[in-house]
Amino acid sequence: MFDINKILRPNIKNLVPYSSARDEFKGEASVFLDANENAYGSPLEQQYNRYPDPLQHKVKLRLSEIKGVPARNIFLGNGSDEAIDILFRAFCNPGIDNVILVPPTYGMYEVSANINDVATKKVHLTEEYQLNLEGIAEVIDEHTKLIFICSPNNPTGNSINRDDIETLLANFNGIVVVDEAYINFSRQKTFIQELTEYANLVVLQTLSKAWGLAALRVGMAFASQEIVEVMNKVKPPYNINEASQQLALQALQNTDLVNLWIKETLAQRDNLVLQLKNLEFVVDIYPSDANFILVKTTDPNGIYRFLVEHGIIVRNRTSVELCEGSLRITIGTPDENKKLLETLQQYR
């Protein structure tokens, strides 16, 4: 059975977090002389001289309405990458513990592990890009603290079998991290709905993809209140700046526009797949639940260079194991997709 105290690092368990001025006073006042801020304002039209809300209450309340989860179960980070890094720092003892990765997958999990001196055990996905449950079970040991699963997966685009993820959640005594950066484009339902069932579940999402706010760097982690409280202890006091909080809150009022973009992206994805299948150098196009497709070709390096010469940038994934020969292509606007297809038709 999962027990957070058994996997939490002792120094984090005993950590007294930094107490900022905005943590110690909550409420309204007319004169703030507690945080050594510049009382005269900012040399900008918008005033940014005051420190932001360290726990981003307004943004979390709006997310709570949209996601159907209590605000106490939401952590906000400087991109999902901050949430990933904090999970390593909170639960993995450097040089002792390990995590399980299931490549091909998002590369930041391994980078963050290496930064934190945490060993990685890799269990490759099957040829169908699904979990190898037997392989995962074989490498779990007493020092395995985290399992990272990206679903829909990057770079393959497919969703991971839900029953397989639940099998891990039910049988692993560490934390299972389900990264749902592309969930808005998926036919699968989010794992956020399972938070009450699994105390060891952390779901990552982001405002960088469907919400179009990549430049603001706002990532989300949904987890038990216990896990969120640990993550809040470890994070820097003001990890989400005021401009990002204000703009994210504005964007979160406009769900209709985002839903319209999602529908258009899915329609464009289906059309792009149909058109690409007519090209003789396209070997296969893998099923996608994301805003990109993985396309296997006869000459990935040549095609990539040809597109670059014409001002079109895709991602060459041929060096990634199980993605040999493949290019990852993000779904663009109708005009961008048209230009891509017209250019590819010229390739010989």
From TrEMBL:
Residues 46-344 form the Aminotransferase class I/classII large domain. It catalyses: L-histidinol phosphate + 2-oxoglutarate = 3-(imidazol-4-yl)-2-oxopropyl phosphate + L-glutamate. Pathway: Lipid metabolism; Amino-acid biosynthesis; L-histidine biosynthesis; L-histidine from 5-phospho-alpha-D-ribose 1-diphosphate: step 7/9. Keywords: Amino-acid biosynthesis, Aminotransferase, Histidine biosynthesis, Pyridoxal phosphate, Transferase. SUPFAM superfamilies: PLP-dependent transferases. InterPro entries: Aminotrans_II_pyridoxalP_BS, Aminotransferase_I/II_large, HisP_aminotrans, PyrdxlP-dep_Trfase, PyrdxlP-dep_Trfase_major, PyrdxlP-dep_Trfase_small. It comes from the Bacteria. GO terms for molecular function: histidinol-phosphate transaminase activity; pyridoxal phosphate binding. Its cofactor is pyridoxal 5'-phosphate. The keyword Transferase applies. One of its GO terms (biological process) is L-histidine biosynthetic process. PANTHER family: HISTIDINOL-PHOSPHATE AMINOTRANSFERASE, HISTIDINOL-PHOSPHATE AMINOTRANSFERASE-RELATED. This is Histidinol-phosphate aminotransferase.
